[in-house]
Amino acid sequence: MAEAQREMLRLDNISVNYGAVKAVKGVSFSVSEGEIVCLLGSNGAGKTTILKTISGLLKPTSGEVKFLGEKISNLPAHVIVKKRLVQAPEGRGIFLNLSVEENLDLGAWVVGDKKQFAVDIEMAFSLFPRLKERRNQNAGTLSGGEQQMLAIARALMSHPKLLLLDEPSLGLAPQVIEKIFEVVEDVNKKGVTILLVEQNAMQALTVAHRGLVLETGELKMSGPARQLLASDEIRKAYLGGV
Predict the structure, then answer these.
(1) What is the CATH number for 49?
(2) Is the pLDDT of residue 1 over 60?
């Protein structure tokens, strides 16, 4: 990552409630242009809630989210996507009754340029050759790994400046996980900043520049990924260390 990059995303004292339940409690952090930042934590820690709040699917109870210096906390999700802040959600969220190509076409609605679509779809197919082989198949007939590839490729069709990835390796075979993370690194090297939520802490910290650790809705630890990998506390909690 280049030095002195501009700040792309900032969360200032964000809290989010589900009814009476406080899911996120006063979380603050930033992501700089060019980074891969991973957000770690056990189930229920608030990771997905934070991503949904950033992308406009949830509204914070207090605090604010800024993207490239502009407050976006109260903007609807489709307006945030137009600003090139795009999420590939947990559970993939693809349209199972549409073909691979139709799903990618929907991802390109922000760009709205047929010539650019032709370029972008070839880019997607170069990242995920399996999708090219299945371009006319309904997404519902794809394997879990192929559906995850499609979810990421569809998000990339929006030309994101910041890509939010929620559990991209969940439930996938090791070989597919390796491919997904290769693409994450490749996309980042091409200029896309990434905020990654991932249960596979070892894999995430291996590709990330920095890590953030959430516990029960609060930010408990942050630092360079290599430093977190070497932390006894992190190893015991997330890496199977003793």
Answers:
(1) 3.40.50.300
(2) no
Q: Which amino acid does the sequence have at 177?
A: I
Structure token pair of residue 148: 């995850």
Residue 206 has pLDDT above 80, yes or no: yes
CB 39 within 8 A of CB 204: no
Of 203, 138, 199, 208, whose CA–CA distance to 171 is shortest? 199
Total domains in the fold of the chain = 1
Tokens representing residue 111 in the block: 């760009």
Both tokens of 124, joined, read: 């997607």
Average pLDDT over residues 91-105: 87
Sheet holding 21-32, edge to edge: 21-32, 7-18, 62-67, 70-71
* Sign, CA torsion 64/188/107/181: negative
Q: Which residue in 48, 38, 41 sits closest to 225, CA to CA?
A: 38
Task: Report whether 4 contacts 19 (CB < 8 A).
Answer: no
pLDDT beyond 50 at 2: no
pLDDT value of position 175: 87
In the chain, where does DSSP find H-type helix? 47-54, 77-82, 100-107, 114-127, 129-133, 144-156, 174-189, 201-207, 225-229, 232-238
In a domain, 237, yes or no: yes
Residue predicted with more confidence, 67 or 240: 67
Question: Would you say 239 and 206 are in contact if contact means Cβ atoms under 8 Å apart?
Answer: no
Q: Which domain holds residue 206?
A: 1-84+201-242
| SS3 at position 171 | coil
Residue 135 — pLDDT band, cuts 50, 70, 90?
A: very high
Q: Is 57 among the domain residues?
A: yes
